[in-house]
Design brief:
127 residues; single chain; 5 helices; mainly alpha
């Protein structure tokens, strides 16, 4: 559903741009209307295909959040979606070295918020 909504938004924006350009150039109304219809259809189709390809390549997962919300209603479908997200995130993670893991363990309990006295103040160059 998110894919169709995004494609419709792109299509409407394209139709409005085409109509505005036609009105500014004093083109006949029927020409503007036909160009708007063609622009709407082409932009919507291109946007839908691009979103479909991005989702197929797992670059962007548009419907994943929607599936999780529907799954939390009681159908239990959120667990497979959550597992697939964790699996995909694990595929993209880079392995950290042993030094990085040790540093992370040491730094876990040492978080302190920044304050004005701990910031390094820079001097402006005098000309």
């Amino acid at each position: 559903m998110v894919k169709m909504d995004a494609a419709l938004i792109f299509a409407v924006i394209a139709a409005l741009v085409v109509a505005l350009a036609g009105l500014l150039k004093d083109v006949r109304f029927i020409v503007i209307a036909m160009r708007c219809v063609v622009g709407f259809l082409v932009a919507g189709a291109v946007a839908y295909i691009v979103i479909l390809l991005l989702e197929a390549k797992s670059i962007m997962l548009f419907d994943l959040d929607t599936m999780e919300e529907e799954g939390s209603a009681g159908s239990g479908a959120a667990a497979p979606a959550e597992e697939s997200r964790k699996g995909k995130e694990a595929d993209h993670e880079e392995p950290a070295g042993e030094a990085g893991m040790e540093q992370g363990k040491e730094a876990e309990g040492t978080f302190q918020p920044m304050d004005a006295s701990s910031l390094k103040h820079m001097q402006t160059p005098e000309s």
